Fold this protein.
Amino acid sequence: MVVKEENERNAGMPEQANAGAAVPVKAKANPAPLGLLGFGMTTVLLNIRNSGITGLSVTILAMGFALGGLAQMIAGILEYRAGNTFGGTAFTAYGCFWWSLVVIWWNPFAAAAADGVSMGFYLLVWGIFTAVMAIGTLKHNVITRIVFFSLAILFFGLALGDFTGAEIITKISGAVGILCGLSAIYSASAQILNAEFKKKILPV
């Protein structure tokens, strides 16, 4: 019979027989830890310098270009693709911050070097942007709030230090920056470990 032959042929074709079955969806990777590590590690290095512990060297420039700039830009683009406006904006913006800061230090355009007033305004506008982003973190977890609110304080403090020329303000701001960077590293570590072990290893 035709029906019997058709059933026999279909018996060896599970793909067609189970055409209506649910297809498992592969989990997408989380780009946030990469961006947070790029931000956090470079922020710690920069503010060790702001605290007066070290000077400006090629280590900060290299980290600023590679991890602070490139890694955050990659994470930001991936966050945009995932539909995360906040994460995409934060990582791409701060990635551009690091690239712009490297250019300011390197000054390949042979333009007038940045003075205290110009750097003060530069840091001030970043502080305003960060304050807006910090308000947005009120809907996020505690560690994210710590990162952004401490970052806003850092920018405003560094701006004030440049405007006034008071080295003590810059050093105090540097200590705040180290806390900010370590908070971002903690957040990245928590996301990586909690995802790997599929349970809460580090609270956020």
